[in-house]
Amino acid sequence: MSLDLLDAPLRLSWDISAADNCLTAESLLAVGQQLLDAGVFYVSLELDPLAHPSIIQLLEQLTSGGCQVSLIIKGTAEELTLLDSLPRSVKLYLDCSAAVTAKNFDPTQLAVIVKTIRASQREPFLLWLPRSCELPLLLEMIDFCVAESIRGFKLPNQKISASSGPDQSVLLPVCNDLEQLSEKIQQSGLPDAPQLQLEVHDLFLWELLQPLSGGARTEYGGCQAGNSLGHIDVTGLLYPCSSWPEVLGNLLQEDLLDLWQSQQRLRIRQQIGEIPVGCEGCGDYQICFGGCRGLSGFCRDDGLKRDLLCAGKRSF
Length: 316
Fold this sequence. Notes:
Distance between the termini: 19 Å
Strand content: 5-15%
Radius of gyration: 19 Å
Oligomer: single chain
Largest sheet: 10 strands, mixed
Number of strands: 12
């Protein structure tokens, strides 16, 4: 498993919204200060961050403290009116999920939003969390990136909640979806996108797209839940990862650094270090280490524990 055991996560995703259970301004900034005190290098603000009334204060706090911040938007009119208020160093990711309907990709409105963002002198990147049976649309999205001169496209890890059940799990892409994408690539080839930077979390998806990614992985090898990665929900609860729905503690009551040294977190890392069921004897285990262990551990119902996008063992 790559990376030694870290004293604090390097990267955190943080769900922020204006829902009834969201953090107050005081609590939001208190958690933000914890991240700075722990030396977190990169924070991704997700869900509906621009809806929170204190988001600008948080962004200024994090960026002035030396933290690299990205922010996910859906491109609503309310969000677009706030763009001029954001610190210039904040990286914008436009969630393109709304452009996918009935397993079709319609880029019309997405192109309008991109143009509006650029009018504010900002450069948007795209982000997509594909659902089951949607992966083949990825090639059309890459074509869109080329047509609109988009420079970055992120395919992050899939999120599952602490109450994850069969209804949520059935929406996640699995190995059959990856095989459909592979067949489409074999038929039509990968788009020519020399200026596009791909950031692909899952190793097995990255393998298919590797010619477009410059040959280098942007994520650490093996599952980094509870090590280089962590996740905070809208109420301030800390998780090992957005794909690992096990609460480590409450950042409104406990210190992040203390939680990262807890026996629960160390137990999770020990569990990740074990060879998962279904990976024994695989020739590529020393490359992927079982892939995403959160999704496989909480969402598989076949007794196996390897990555959902892995089709099976590979021989030496």
